[in-house]
Design a protein that fits this description.
alpha/beta, 645 residues, 5-stranded mixed β-sheet, 23 helices
Length: 645
Amino acid sequence: MTSHPFGGIWCASSSTYALRKAVEDMQPCEEVKDTLLWSFYVDDMLKSVASPQETIEVIEDTRSVLRHGGFNLTKFMINDVKLLESIDEQDRAKEAKELTSNMHSKVLGIKWDVENDCFFFVSKGVQTQNVTRRVMLSQLASTYDPLGLVLPIIVPAKILFQEATRLKMSWDENIPISLCQKWLKWITSLYEISRLRFPRCVLPLEWNGCTSELHHFCDASEVAFGACTYLRTIDQDGKVHVALLASKARVAPIKGVTIPRLEISAAVEAAKLDVVVKRELDIPLLKSNFWSDSTIALAYIQNETRRFKTFVANRVTLIRQVSEANQWHHVSGDENPADVLSRGCFVDNLPASWFNGPPFLSNYKCAWPAQDNLVGHLQDEDPEVRREVYPTSIVQMCQSGVTQHPIDTLIEHYSSLYRLKKAVGWWLRLIQFLKKKIPQNSPLEIHELKHAENLIVKHVQGRAYFHETKNIEAGKTVLKSSSIYKLSPILIDGVEWTLSRVRKKFWIIRGRKLVKRVKMDCIVCKRLYGAPMNQRMSDLPPRGVNPGGQPLARQGYPSKVWSDNGTNLVGARAELARSVRDLDRSLIVRETRRRDVEWSFNPPSASHHGGVWERMIRKLYISHIKWDMNLLTVRMKNYRKMDLT
């Protein structure tokens, strides 16, 4: 295939690949190679050089290389009339066929005043009384401004379009009269946009050996936020030149957002602009400077001790990835050129600082705004500051006098029951360490996790059934209105509780045995805690097994597996042990501990330890023998009948 239909989505990538392939085959000099690789956008070349001689060399060398690759570089437009005259007329752009003093061209969709070497814009707004959301969006898209040079003038239209969207109107429904009048006023002011001029050259040609740095300004309001970037250059004689490079602005979300959040979002736009501009500029730059009139946003960025909620935390992290805290400075709202991005304006109201930055940028650093004590400290009451949550409430009690139970604190902190049990288990270990001073660094055992689970359940039950617990402790019955009345609730440690109450005043020899005997003979105790008449099924014994079905798939994981020392089972265990040697042991320990599974063998030749399943095996064995004997008896009878016949 030697050609592609024009306009296909593959055209850009195909032509770019062919262009780079030509460079690879020809191996031109570095100057031409850089021009072909970095100064082309699909089939358009944009190149800026310092002298007419360099211009001629770039044109001739580039055309020579491309000619060998099958490309014909044509449609030249140069901002030097003498150089343009040296180009054949058929190779000039159509705007330059006749050399006039008022030549205009396009540079990637942007109007270019060739004689004055400036960019400008032309309004395409159309006055119409039937203004709909579709019309508004169409006119917004017709103003092509990739660098954001006239973005302050476009922001009011974006705000009006958002207001129409907030009213939930359809695309072809006329907007309200009040909104339509504002829109038509903006369209009228847009006709004056052609008066604005933006120099294409941001670095003076006669300045050699100069130093350059980027300055980014950001601001936000209730309706919009944005950032703009300026290039500040100082020559060897101390002259300062400042030029606007780019800007970016967004309307505030329809869902209400606080001003501090919008301010930090504007700072993010400034950080993004810094990355993009640095990547595109091919001149050496000093460290960038960032300016904001929001002290709270600067406090967020320069914070080193506080933790923020997700919205602010994510944006501060992005900002700190591309900049340092000492690069951010405070500027007053009157001197912030980004203020016009956050509110928008008409052409007549566009301030001079938008083109050349605030006046202090044209002075030396000693005349810049002072930064002493302008950024305040974050307060605990700040809604974006995350409140510290400690793993136990002991520290909280010491710091703020809060008497919340440690288990309540852990329940609020964790959303996983397993992680909660681990936290309580480690907390119990800490208590034991503080009492006995014996450190334990091994992982939590299953019995520790079970103890932690029981402690959690008891605590939650005590909180949920506080009055019921108090009634039982006082020897009273549970009220019939209680949701657990029909369950006949009792306290497991009733004997211990009774004994402790008695020992507050008297010490009874063999008191525990006496309390148990009295409890057995107590009529009230029997009435309150006696077993009901209907028989209830008891819990399965800890060593009970389920003989039928698939225990893992249907009944879940067992808490403990018991088996005898049969050769097949012992061999299986040994085979499993060999298989898991190369596995992640810590993972296995965590998973088995999570499911509370243990596997224990009976002593060899001690089948009586497994009486439950041995009895079941014997029963199945006898049943199988009886079935075989019955089958054999039937077959013998049939055989005799056949023999008699």
